[in-house]
Write a structure and sequence with these properties.
Strand order of the largest sheet: 4-3-2-5-6-7
Radius of gyration: 16 Å
CATH architecture: 3-Layer(aba) Sandwich
Bound molecules: guanosine-5'-monophosphate, magnesium ion
Order of helices and strands: EHEHEEEHEEEEH
Shape: globular
CATH class: Alpha Beta
Largest sheet: 6 strands, mixed
Distance between the termini: 19 Å
Helix content: 10-25%
Low-confidence stretches: none
Mean pLDDT: 92
Number of domains: 1
Amino acid sequence: MKTLLTETVIQDGVRRIAQQIAHDFRGKRLTMMGVMTGSVVFLADLMRQLDFPLRVGVVWASSYRASTTRGELVVNTPMMPSVTGDHVLLVDDIFDTGHTLDRLLKEIRKCGPLSVHSAVLLRKQGRREVSLDPDYVAFEIPDEFVVGYGLDYQGHYRHLPYLAALEPDDMAKWPS
Ligand code: 5GP
Ligand code: MG
């Protein structure tokens, strides 16, 4: 595996966007909504950098994608906290094609929030397929399959405190 972002670099990036988020939402009713499971580490670090009252919830989304077809995105909205009258900040690990965030933002808008914004740890360059862009991005990365800091391959590697690009040898270790 090749390390892309060290633990120290990630923490600096998280602090940087936390400052932007604090500047924009301090004093407002804010619910941070983490997209499970990939955002779990980012969500935990980001929320602890915000020193004003806010609420935290999660939403579950997963896409079952084959190599050639666009995967069906399954969203579990019944588990979402109520956000009527709140500003919502959707927090995800990575913006790749953007379909996941696009779909989730639409679902959340149906619940009557005051506003909906999005924050991602990573944005992959040259992959976007939707008109939406995330409002807060900590890092731009090249188009490689990455793991660590919440991101997995077959459920592995989420616990790594750094971000790494997977190489074919690493993938071969965990056959599906
Ligand atoms: P999108 O809908 O933007 O194409 O994909 C977003 C989702 O795909 C992310 O939330 C993440 O779960 C998954 N994903 C996209 N790229 C990567 C990657 O490089 N590594 C991992 N582990 N997951 C990824
Ligand atoms: Mg995800």
